[in-house]
Target: Arachidonate 12-lipoxygenase, 12S-type
Amino acid sequence: MGRLRRPVEEFEQDVPQDLGPLQFVKLRKHHSLVDDAWFCDRITVQGPGALEEAAFPCYRWVQGQGVLTLPEGTARLAGNNTLDVFQKHREKELEERQQIYCWATWKEGLPMTIAAGSLDDLPPNMRFHEQKRLDFEWTVIAGLMEMALKYVYTLPSPWKRLEDFDQIFWGQKTALAGQLFAQVHHNPLMTLLMRIPANVIQGVQQYLAAPLVMLKMEASGKLLPMVIQLLIPHTRYTMDINTRARNQLISDGGLFDKAWSTGGGGLVQVFRRAMTQLTYRSLCPPDDLADRGLLGIPSALYAHDALRLWEIIARYVEGIVHLFYHGDDIVRGDPELQAWCREITEVGLCQAQDRGFPVSFQSRAQLCHFLTMCIFTCSAQHAAVNMGQFDWYAWIPNAPGSMRMPPPTNKEDVTMDTVMGSLPSFWQTSLQVIATSLISQPPPDMVPLGHHQEEYFSGPEPKAVLRQFQADLDNLEKEIVARNEQLDLPYEYLKPSLIENSIAI
Ligand SMILES: [Fe+2]
Model:
């Protein structure tokens, strides 16, 4: 157990009576003067005699007057026995959770979110732990302070040369950042951005244009919490970071309104359009890469690493699922699982069955595919998109978040003055650099993919499957390191040790 800002402590308690085989343990916090919260990992019970150890996973805050009832950690299938104590417990737990975790529409046309207007409305178990919150907020403050100092000492306004941007390009330049050159080419992003209203920042009208890249291919080249438990480590901190993003980044008056040409409002419109293109296939690399013509291209490093990760995650998911679901009929007959699937597609993703998302699982294979998609998206896909942001956006001329003049219509009119006058101001530049460095740094308490410490499943088999997953990831790590040694510009974003287990930033 660990208390807020206190180290972890272990407690032992001897029980003189023989209680027989245990099904549940109940946990309540003794109240002293202050109602401080404790985070309990798990309770294990040993004996009597040669009885095997029984584990009761918790991984929750214990606070207030409530009593937590923790079932033994062996995954169980739904039974038809309504007298079954585990089934009764699960039904009660689901009812409680439906009260705590409610859907809300943040903006029409976007996926639904948790009903939480602010961070304080989030369930405590979904919040950043204290150290994570302090690290996160301190990084923001440190960035703002550094910006203020640079503003005072090196005031570079007005910009004259592209090199002026180096003054705000602090920290170590990465191998990629600063080497990037955008080229004009017809691009589907044009349609996505067409008629998105442009922002006004500090009284100055802004302009936006699609970011363009041209790539060239070289010739050489009912009672079954187990599934949801399988996913819990991959959702750590996600509600907290997403609530922060909705309230501080893309909200009215948020960071996008302050520095980006779309503002928060335009960005929501972009999301709305992107949502209509969000298909189930687009979230699954074997389908997505095929649809985008990226299979079998040696230099498509993302494609290669994403496919390998997909296979490794799929093997892990299948290993766990097959331990508990012994046939397709068991999947079809699990009401909780089926309700979960339908709710994601019909409610959370706003009737996404038209875009290929399932409304039921008919087989173990279909279930495994969906779970693999969930874990891949929350870990590898997020890493691939998120971690390159500093490389891509920190050197502002490569990817300006805003333009202060409309794009030129002919080459002859473009002078260095028009380029510098179009690029973002010192203030916008600083905010872009702070934001991208904040989200691209590995957080101090990062948990790499497959290395969560929580043990939700009792028994040796799930542990063996997890160990195999870790071994597969290790092998891929070695392959990627060896491959990268041969490259001028290594592709690191999908190196397993750098992939976070959940969307936590
Ligand atoms: Fe993120």
